[in-house]
Design a protein that fits this description.
alpha+beta; elongated; about 35% strand; 8 strands; 6-stranded mixed β-sheet
Length: about 150
């Protein structure tokens, strides 16, 4: 059994490390020609730019502390507590909801978000902006028991 378990564990760790490690690629890999200056140093600003922010998603996770409905715009503003607190915007049709499909305060949530998005709450024409860090891309929730006996 050990003869099978050790190589299996090694390959599982190797593939999971490869999945999380961002690939930067070189000028030849991305097709970008090398920009040289007088001292013949390459310009790496083309490689590490706006594209790298998409490779590293911003994550949040913890207990849902509050839910604010965005009445003037579609969505919900979620206040998520520790260990990775955030104030993010959930938009139906844009955000993908997994697991137990429940975004209520006693549940836990874990997900990623991208910067941007506006939550407007109030009664039209008077709408207030609720500040958020960004719009949820993926989120999964936990199952909260209905009674303590479960």
């Amino acid at each position: 059994m050990k003869q099978l378990l050790v190589p299996l564990l090694f390959w599982a760790l190797l593939f999971s490390a490869m999945a999380v490690t961002p690939s930067y690629g070189g000028p030849s890999a991305s097709g970008i020609a090398r920009d040289t200056t007088e001292n013949d140093t390459p310009d790496f600003s083309l490689l590490v730019g706006a594209d790298m922010t998409a490779a590293v998603p911003l994550a949040f996770g913890g207990r849902i502390l509050a839910v604010v409905p965005c009445t003037c715009s579609a969505g919900l503003a979620l206040k998520v507590g520790p260990p990775r607190p955030a104030y993010v915007l959930y938009q139906p049709g844009v955000s993908i909801l997994f697991s137990f499909y429940n975004l209520l305060p006693p549940d836990y949530a874990l997900g990623t978000y991208k910067p941007g998005g506006v939550c407007l709450t109030g009664t039209p024409p008077v709408c207030l902006t609720v500040p958020t860090l960004g719009t949820v891309t993926l989120v999964g929730t936990s199952l909260t028991p209905l009674s303590p006996s479960i």
